[in-house]
Amino acid sequence: MESPFKTDILKGKVALLTGGGSGIGFEMATQFGKHGASVAIMGRRKHILDSAVATLQSQGIQAIGLEGDVRKQEDANRVVESTVKHFGRLDILVNNAAGNFLVSAEDLSPNGFRTVLDIDSVGTFTMCHEALKYLKKGGPGKGPASGGTIVNISATLHYTASWYQIHVSAAKAAVDSLTRSLALEWGTDYDIRVNGIAPGPIGDTVGTRKLIPDEIKSKTREYMPLYKMGEKRDIAMAALYLASDAGKYINGTTIVVDGGLWLSRPRHLPKEAVKELSRVVEKRSREAPIGVPKSKL
Ligand code: HXC
Fold first, then answer.
1. How far is the CA of 211 from the centre of ligand 1 (A)?
2. Mind listing the domains of the chain with CATH numbers?
3. Which end of the chain has less Cβ packing within 10 Å, N or C?
4. Three-state SS across the chain?
């Protein structure tokens, strides 16, 4: 499918994406590459990275794979340093690595809770922390001409409350908070823009396979009328928008890319019924306004 963006919007830029070897992370790496960027992808599994890098390179994209776990500061540091050593600079950091599983709050161990916060929230902060010196305007001799940019992948489940996702809700709420705080501090001090993307259910991803088992898929539209599966490309296009000059005045925002799903509520009355009922209720309240006894009318 042809891109709505010009193919050189990230020309000369270097992007580092955590969890970039598969799923949404890999699609973002591909689209960044197709729009001119060189990409470094970070992940825990070598064979996944190797195959992802081979696919990227076969499309003419400058790409390297770097093994590492965002939970380990030494890994984060090594991966950032290796990216800059290989490509000479770092302009874009995408914090996409995440952990998830469905579990009731009652059955979740504190270590399970901590594990997801460690990956999603602490991991995001650690990567930002290690990348800062290269994302800074002019920093240390190799930084981008203006400040670089960060995109944090979040979710919408903490906007309200979500069943069996207490750990991820807490983790993503913290990610959104990091996005805003870093946008304020690093935007002001270093001209670094920090934004987020909150995807809805995206087809063909580990997240969706884990969270929406086949057993409940057919029921989903009953209680989520706006339910529609997104594509990995939808998230990649939002990331391109935020990471490129198209988004140069956007800072501290998390863009929801879910087709409006988080606003979904079951329809409690059919449209025709509401027309009828509404008139009846109006008439009734005109005849007997609240607080005015019928005898006084
Ligand atoms: C209950 C579980 C569990 C489960 C793990 N734990 N799986 N508890 N139900 N299904 C508990 C363990 O018992 C343990 O606690 C603790 O979590 C750590 O588990 P480990 O297996 O030791 O952790 P680790 O090997 O580091 O694996 C981390 C992981 C795993 C998060 C558990 O799933 C993972 O690596 N995921 C990465 C890939 C992934 O999930 N991607 C999907 C992202 S989707 P105890 O107490 O026993 O020691 C996504 C979408 C977000 O982010 C929102 C969309 C709406």
1. 12
2. 14-287 (3.40.50.720)
3. N
4. CCCCCCCCCCCCCEEEEECCCCHHHHHHHHHHHHCCCEEEEEECCHHHHHHHHHHHHHCCCCEEEEECCCCCHHHHHHHHHHHHHHHCCCCEEEECCCCCCCCCCCCCCHHHHHHHHHHHHHHHHHHHHHHHHHHCCCHHHCCCCCCCEEEEECCCCCCCCCCCCHHHHHHHHHHHHHHHHHHHHHHHHHCCEEEEEEECCECCCHHHHHHCCHHHHCCHHHHCCCCCCECHHHHHHHHHHHHCHHHCCCCCCEEEECCCHHHCCCCCCCHHHHHHHHHHHHHHHHHCCCCCCHHHC
Q: Ligand 1 centroid vs 140 CA: distance in angstroms?
A: 37
**Atom 44 in ligand 1: residue holding the nearest Cα:** 207
Residue with CA nearest ligand 1 atom 25: 115
Residues lining ligand 1, CB < 6 A?
A: 98-101, 103, 108-109, 111-112, 115-116, 155, 157, 168, 206-207, 210-211
pTM: 0.93
